[in-house]
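Progress report, Aim 2. The chain analyzed during this reporting quarter is listed below.
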Amino acid sequence: MARYRGPRLRVVRRLGELPGLSRKSPKRTYPPGEHGQGRRKRSEYAIRLEEKQKLRYNYGLSEKQLLRYVRRARRLTGSTGQVLLQLLEMRLDNTVFRLGMAPTIPAARQLVSHGHILVNGGRLNIPSYSCRPGDVIAVRDRDSSRKLVEANRQSPGLAHLPNHLEFDKDKLEGKVNGIIEREWVALQINELLVVEYYSRQA
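Predicted structure tokens for the chain:
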């Protein structure tokens, strides 16, 4: 299944707050659909599925991509759930979003894919690129690119800059100083349930 392009607030109502997907808050607090207001007991599988869907929609991934990230996290040392979150947080589109250059991750993905972002001085249009400590992420030195990012900077998606990033407002340039720590992940999620969900597939 391809990346989700449907109504975002519908997903937010179903899964809860997703800072990377949308900045809007739904007017109704219950899930969408005919049975949204009903109190149904959720199975263990449903709870794990919901946590997995939060990751997918927040970071804008397809099912295939997320499974690939889970398999990669399994091979690396450390807690699989924590490593998975670090891999997703260090993606270029998410890093551009966390630097405040875009209001949401889909908007950051568009900035990257349209060639407005430079990584270490070279233009890079791959949103899934994994940022490494020492990478310098800047806005292309072109009026249209700078105006776009400056407009986005007026109302960034998240208020706080994580401690593994630094940003120069005048140059519109950010730097990755390390790997993100778990407490700086903005999404409210139980990553262990996601790992359990994929335990048979990965």
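The helical segments are 8-15, 44-59, 63-75, 80-89, 92-98, 105-113, 143-153, 191-197. The chain is about 40% helix and 10% strand. These observations will guide the mutagenesis work planned for the next reporting period.
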